[in-house]
Design a protein that fits this description.
The protein is an alpha+beta fold. The protein has 9 helices and 8 strands.
């Protein structure tokens, strides 16, 4: 007689430390139960996994940089005469169309600013919040000369990080509260009106409302701290190379989907040029 088909019984996930059955979503995600005796091993294992993942990602980026440098040595043999003397920064890249900013996006920003400003006004009612806000945004008051390789990298990329700005431009409650505390002559409505007045008529499609083909339409003084302080991994991976020499020559290469495309060349005297190549990455590396 033929036996009926059975899918069998699936084993229930258990704690990696004590073997107890995992029940909650947090337990299932972490692989450990909620008993206090298991939290220490859980946190230790999570830290080890995070460090291992970070090391793998850094190794992958280092390999990508080596592959890009090999491509550029070949493609720029006449232009880049001394490739090892220049900093190489590998970045993504934006090639979105420039479109008219729709009225509904402007209204979304206006509504966001109104809500965020109301929350900011409430936040500064508590004097104790002032010190925390100053600490949060204190680096804005320090003038730092931007290294030439960073200028080259951002100019070549054209603002991949700006895509996340959407209809809010990272103008959040805390930053607006900081502005209110540090600009006592400004009223909340004046600040909102100024942001709306500075909106460009055209911006990159699908990106931040202030993201134009020439860069950000907002002056640095009133951009969010997120925008002023964010550094992508392509830049942070190599920034130690120009820490003491911010005027170093650099090559910035846009890489998307395994293809090296736009390349920015900047000399130590700040002369910059840009070229387009279309070459696969890693094609010369033996598997």
């Amino acid at each position: 007689m033929t036996q009926p088909f059975s899918f069998g019984t699936q084993a229930k996930p258990t704690c990696e430390n004590c073997g107890a059955t995992l029940v909650t979503a947090v337990e299932l995600r972490e692989g450990f139960c909620s008993q206090l005796k298991c939290r220490g091993p859980c946190l230790k294992r999570m830290g080890e996994r995070a460090r291992a993942q970070k090391a793998r990602e850094r190794q992958r980026r280092d390999q990508l940089a080596d592959d890009v440098r090999s491509v550029l040595r070949r493609e720029l043999s006449e232009t880049w005469t001394n490739p090892d003397s220049a900093v190489l920064v590998v970045v993504p890249g934006v090639d979105a169309a420039v479109v008219e900013v729709p009225a509904e996006r402007i209204e979304t920003l206006r509504s966001h600013l109104g809500s965020a400003m109301t929350a900011a006004e409430n936040e500064i009612q508590n004097p104790q919040n002032g010190e925390a806000l100053d600490v949060m945004h204190q680096d804005r008051d320090v003038y730092v000369v931007t290294a030439l390789p960073v200028i080259n990298a951002c100019s070549t990329c054209r603002g991949q990080c700006c895509l996340q700005g959407g209809d809010h431009a990272f103008l959040n409650r805390d930053f607006l509260a900081w502005r209110l505390l540090n600009e006592p002559d400004q009223t909340p409505q004046n600040i909102i009106d100024d942001y709306i007045r500075r909106l460009p008529s055209h911006a990159l499609e699908g990106s931040c409302l202030y993201h134009t083909s020439a860069g950000c339409a907002l002056p640095r003084q009133i951009r969010s701290s997120t925008c002023n302080e964010f550094v992508c991994t392509g830049i942070s991976d190599v920034c130690n190379q120009w820490y003491d020499r911010p005027e170093m020559a650099s090559v910035a290469a846009c890489v998307n989907s395994g293809i090296c495309g736009r390349v920015g060349l900047m000399s130590s005297d700040s002369h910059r040029s840009e070229i387009e190549i279309h070459a696969p990455i890693g094609a010369d590396r033996s598997e």
